[in-house]
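Hypothesis: this fold can be encoded by more than one sequence.
Test: take the C-alpha cells below, design a sequence, compare later.
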C-alpha cells in the first residue's frame, strides 16, 4: 500500500516544520477538517519519539487555531485512531482536527464515545 502522507500532497499542506505537517483532509467530514501527520512514517503513537509526540500535540493546537480562524466553528472533535482495532485505515499515524457546528448532528453528546455505540450513552 502506498502511503498518502509520504510525501504529502503539496497542494493540501496548511503548515509544516521538520517533525510534522498539517494537511487538509482529502475526504473532510466538515469544512476545515485538518490532519496533523508526523513526517517520519510511524503507524502508532507509541512509536513516536518524545520530540515527535510534543510536535504533534503543538501542531494540533496550531491546526485548531487555524481552523477556528478560517471557519469560526462552535467546537472541535480532535482524535487519533491508534491501530486497526481503533479504526485506523491509513498505517501512518495522524490526528484529525474536525471543526464542529451546533446542529451538525442531531445529538452530539458523548462525542467520540460513540465509536462503541453500546457503551456510549452514560447519561
Amino acid at each position: 500500500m502506498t502511503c498518502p502522507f509520504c510525501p504529502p500532497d503539496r497542494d493540501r499542506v496548511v503548515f509544516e516544520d521538520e517533525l510534522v505537517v498539517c494537511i487538509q483532509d482529502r475526504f473532510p467530514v466538515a469544512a476545515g477538517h485538518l490532519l496533523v501527520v508526523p513526517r517520519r512514517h510511524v503507524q502508532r503513537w507509541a512509536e513516536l519519539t518524545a520530540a515527535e509526540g510534543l510536535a504533534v500535540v503543538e501542531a494540533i493546537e496550531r491546526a485548531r487555531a487555524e481552523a477556528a480562524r478560517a471557519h469560526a466553528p462552535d467546537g472541535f472533535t480532535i482524535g487519533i485512531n491508534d491501530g486497526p482495532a481503533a479504526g485506523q485505515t491509513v498505517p501512518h499515524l495522524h490526528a484529525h482536527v474536525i471543526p464542529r457546528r451546533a446542529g451538525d448532528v442531531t445529538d452530539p453528546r458523548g462525542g467520540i464515545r460513540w465509536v462503541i455505540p453500546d457503551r456510549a450513552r452514560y447519561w
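The chain has one domain: 10-104. The longest strand covers residues 75-80.
Hypothesis status: open.
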